[in-house]
């Protein structure tokens, strides 16, 4: 059922769920938007406010620090203050007066009966407008960047250690830009025809710079379109779609194992390329497999996809050695390549997670690799840019499996001469991804 809440009420409702109840921003926002009757422009505004507030949370909290003199007891107060300061600082087209008026209205709407919360909100926002933005001393470069770009200090140090300070500044700036609306066109369709249809429907499509199969749209909302519902396209970042492009597909019979498949974005992409054969999609979480099935049905490849709940570290109990022509390990990872699209990741991950995840990633590779046919291909990918989860996993895997070697690959617009490809998130404001392709030594 749709409701007639305003864009800002939906933003606040979502931010309370994400900041106070630790829900995922994309899932909470999509749920609220799908149950609303907002125009496309208002949906865009709500999306901008929610993502912008989460992206800039450290910066916004730093602004609040000196201004809050009472305990913010009511649940809505802090999210409302953060999203209001976000609009004052970052949304040039919205006058401060409008932000204040809207904040007052929301405080009255979300506050308890007889609450004086709106006075607190009004007082703090007026003080902020008078005093303006503050930042730490720029001499402490890490702390300064951490607040300015809202990135925890450990991550700023991590980026600086691996890519140097200048690149770190560029990376952080790029990560705080809005994520693009990328879609992948099904290989079963005429790409130009789908592109023309997107144009006719007002989506302002542009071809991707990274892949021949992807298109960047001028705005969101494509999941409501007929093209999406009929499986002519799917929502997938351009960098994510490169993973499957790294396999060599021909007309031979394929038996593919997708070891970590949910929600199935890459399973369906592989299934689209199968002329004869099938793809077996595993996931440790049985309840996520319905997403793979739904995706396969919508993308018209259900007849080629089988699903099975299974821990990929135990596949040898179920499958035979050499059973698969292609194996994809799109591993569970920190998601550090998705800091733009899933901005809350930066506040939840720790450096220790990178080491713990590496152990799981290696265990999965170790378990699935014997299932590969002699002349088959194994692709390992993550949506992380951390060295621990990417290059270090490849190095360890090769050390422990001397019968495997890296295999160079060509994509529609990029190539890897080493067999490894790291796509950084500042390359073209895409998601950050890592791809490594292996074959067995001849
Ligand atoms: C990066 S996501 C996969 C995304 C998917 N390939 C796609 O393109 O839509 C990683 C998936 O691995 C699953 N997973 C985590 N540990 C696993 C394990 N030990 N065995 C199998 N699946 C696992 C998670 O539930 C998650 O769905």
TrEMBL record:
Coiled coil: none annotated. It is found in: Cytoplasm. It catalyses: cytidine(967) in 16S rRNA + S-adenosyl-L-methionine = 5-methylcytidine(967) in 16S rRNA + S-adenosyl-L-homocysteine + H(+). Its EC number is 2.1.1.176. Gene3D superfamilies: NusB-like (1.10.940.10), Sun protein, domain 3 (3.30.70.1170), Vaccinia Virus protein VP39 (3.40.50.150). S-adenosyl-L-methionine binds at residues 260-266, 283, 311, 330. Keywords: Cytoplasm, Methyltransferase, RNA-binding, rRNA processing, S-adenosyl-L-methionine, Transferase. PROSITE patterns: SAM_MT_RSMB_NOP. GO terms for biological process: methylation. It holds the Pfam family RsmF-B_ferredox. Belongs to the class I-like SAM-binding methyltransferase superfamily. RsmB/NOP family. Specifically methylates the cytosine at position 967 (m5C967) of 16S rRNA. This is 16S rRNA (cytosine(967)-C(5))-methyltransferase.
């Amino acid at each position: 059922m749709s409701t007639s809440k305003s864009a800002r009420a939906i933003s606040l409702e979502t931010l309370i769920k994400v900041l106070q109840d630790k829900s995922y921003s994309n899932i909470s926002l999509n749920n609220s938007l799908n149950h609303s009757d907002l125009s496309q422009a208002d949906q865009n505004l709500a999306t901008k406010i929610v993502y912008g507030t989460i992206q800039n949370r450290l910066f916004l909290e730093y602004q609040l620090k000196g201004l809050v003199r009472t305990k913010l007891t009511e649940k809505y107060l802090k999210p409302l203050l953060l999203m209001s300061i976000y609009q004052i600082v970052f949304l040039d087209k919205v006058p401060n007066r409008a932000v204040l008026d809207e904040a007052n209205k929301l405080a009255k709407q979300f506050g308890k009966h007889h609450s004086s919360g709106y006075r607190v909100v009004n007082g703090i926002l007026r003080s902020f407008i008078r005093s303006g933005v503050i930042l730490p001393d720029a001499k402490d470069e890490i702390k300064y960047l951490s607040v300015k770009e809202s990135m925890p200090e450990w991550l700023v140090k991590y980026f600086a250690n691996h890519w140097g300070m200048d690149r770190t500044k560029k990376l952080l700036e790029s990560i705080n830009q809005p994520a693009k609306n990328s879609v992948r066109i099904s290989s079963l369709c005429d790409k130009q025809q789908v592109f023309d249809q997107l144009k006719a429907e007002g989506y302002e499509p542009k071809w991707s710079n990274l892949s021949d199969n992807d298109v960047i749209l001028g705005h969101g909302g494509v999941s409501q379109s007929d093209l999406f519902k009929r499986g002519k396209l799917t929502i997938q970042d351009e960098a994510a779609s490169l993973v499957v492009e790294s396999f060599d597909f021909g007309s031979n019979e394929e038996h593919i194992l997708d070891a970590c498949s949910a929600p199935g974005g890459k399973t369906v992409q592989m299934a689209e390329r199968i002329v004869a054969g099938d793809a077996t999609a595993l996931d440790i979480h049985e309840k996520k497999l319905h997403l793979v099935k739904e995706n396969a049905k919508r993308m018209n490849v259900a007849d080629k996809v089988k699903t099975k709940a299974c821990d990929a570290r135990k596949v040898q109990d179920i499958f035979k050695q050499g059973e698969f022509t292609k194996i994809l390990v799109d591993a569970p990872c920190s998601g550090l390549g998705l800091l733009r699209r899933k901005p809350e990741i930066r506040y939840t991950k720790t450096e220790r997670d990178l080491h713990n995840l590496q152990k799981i990633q290696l265990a999965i590779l170790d378990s699935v690799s014997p299932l590969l046919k002699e002349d088959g291909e194994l692709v390992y990918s993550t949506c992380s840019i951390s060295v621990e989860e990417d290059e270090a996993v490849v190095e360890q895997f090769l050390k422990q499996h001397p019968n495997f070697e890296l295999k160079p690959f060509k994509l529609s617009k990029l190539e890897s001469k080493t067999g490894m490809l790291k796509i950084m998130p500042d390359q073209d404001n895409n998601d950050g991804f890592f791809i490594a392709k292996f074959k067995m030594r001849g």
